[in-house]
Amino acid sequence: MNGLYESIFVNPWPWWVGGLIIGILVPLLYYSENTALGVSTGYGSVIKLLRPRSRLKWLNSKSFEEGPGWRIFFLGGMILGAFISARLGGRPLLTGEMGIFTATVSWSPLATALFFAVGGFFLGLGARIAGGCTSGHSIHGLANLQISSVVATIGFLAAGTFTTYLVRVFILGGGG
Hints:
single chain
């Protein structure tokens, strides 16, 4: 029993397990809800819930007419699931450790939080400008052969590769 517990809650799952789960959930969600599984619309649902009378054009689009719905539970489930998995895997209740980043960079907790908050802001802004998040474009858009999703996915991969290089060289101090 201990081996099963560790393989589910402690050890990282193989990449193909996540792909298989997404590959099953995507058509099920299309069939049951006639919608794509994406995270950025869920974040928009949270903002719409907090600011229902916002004058932002994208918050008053068809995606947010019916209120938050299942997307709030989807986001909450991701956060709660990660928390439960970490706790069952023996991780501490709260931690500031973020792998190689905090092992290499000796920033204050405030500077680290600000760095990731600004990064999160730009991630959300990019998702809105691109008309969806990386999962929405790369999983659903490519499967539906949408040219805009091909362009967006190429942009995500190129910008992600370039940004990773910049972080490695200028923040983590690695070689080029």
